[in-house]
Design a protein that fits this description.
- Helix 1 packs across helix 2.
- By secondary structure, this protein is α+β, with helices and mostly antiparallel strands.
- The protein is globular and about 35 Å long.
- Helices cover 36% and strands 26% of the residues.
Length: 121
């Protein structure tokens, strides 16, 4: 894996620390030129949505990594584009509606279990 995977790990840990749900990482670099990885997570409220996005930006900024572009700051879906890694944080109803995972089902699902805290939530 490459240095983009370090961004993935940091993002997953940040999302998990803010109790983001159903975190999924899909490696798509072999099937598209858009990005190498998608990180997708669900937030249960607008407050949590913003908190997750802010935490991802903060943790990556600590490593000197800034987003190329950010979309949706006031919506039900925030997209953080780090070029090689695109992070989608959505409210549950938006995630159910858009089903991003289905669009990229030919990608490789990455096991992130070692990056998330195992506890009953």
């Amino acid at each position: 894996m490459n240095n983009y995977f370090e961004i993935v790990k940091t993002a997953v840990k940040a999302i998990d620390s803010k109790r983001g749900l159903d975190i999924e990482v899909i490696k798509v670099g072999d099937i598209t030129v858009l990005t190498d990885y998608f990180v997708i997570a669900t937030a249960s409220s607008n407050t949590q949505l913003k908190a997750i996005a802010d935490e991802v930006e903060f943790k990556l900024s600590e490593q000197g990594i800034e987003p190329h572009h950010v979309e949706g700051r006031t919506s039900e879906w925030i997209c953080l584009d780090y070029e090689g890694v695109v992070i989608h944080v959505l409210l549950n109803k938006s995630r159910d509606f858009y089903q991003i995972e289905r669009l990229w089902e030919d990608g490789e699902i990455i096991d992130i279990s070692e990056f998330v805290i195992k506890e009953d939530r």
